[in-house]
Amino acid sequence: MTRYVRCNFCNADDTEVMNHGPDLLLQKPGDFYLVRCRRCGLIYQNPQLSQEELAAHYPDNYLPYQQDTADRQTRIAHVSRDQAIAYIQHRDEEVGREMAQLQAELRAAMDGLRNARHESEMLRRQIEADDR
Ligand SMILES: [Zn+2]
Question: Would you say 30 and 56 are in contact if contact means Cβ atoms under 8 Å apart?
Fold first, then answer.
């Protein structure tokens, strides 16, 4: 049974999903979420698998357990690391672009609001002048 856990570092219960995906190594069923603690920034899997479920993902013949395949294990680790870095760089660029777009939209909206306020003030003065 999967269970939601609090941040292991600061004990907060406030996360945002960074990514989710399948077991790439063994193709075991499941969709696994990486979350980031909004308080301290720790990235961890949540929810987490029970001991029984974990055992299915780490069988006795699990590749990294094989001493004679250390080189392969290292290569797989490097590929995983490179994929993670590439993904984070990609997301960082995407978020940067989205942020710039949102800031531009916010500036445009604020300009529109300022113009509308100015126009309504001019109209109010015109109406008050006409009433006199
Ligand atoms: Zn935390």
Answer: no
- Residue 108 backbone zone (phi > 0: left; psi -120 to 50: alpha; other: beta): alpha
Distance 13 CA to ligand 1 centre (A): 8
Mean pLDDT of the chain: 90
Upstream peptide bond of 64 is cis (omega within 30 degrees of 0): no
Residues 6+ apart with CB under 8 A from 21: 31, 32
Amino acid at 30: G
Rounded Cα–Cα distance for residues 59 and 61 (Å): 5
Residue 27: both structure tokens together: 């193709």
Q: What is the C-alpha to C-alpha distance for residues 39 and 8, in angstroms, rounded to an integer?
A: 12
**Model pLDDT for residues 15-53, shown as the tens digit of each residue:** 999 999 998 888 888 899 999 999 999 999 999 999 888
Centre of ligand 1 from the C-alpha of residue 45, in Å? 13
22: left (phi over 0), alpha (psi -120 to 50) or beta: beta
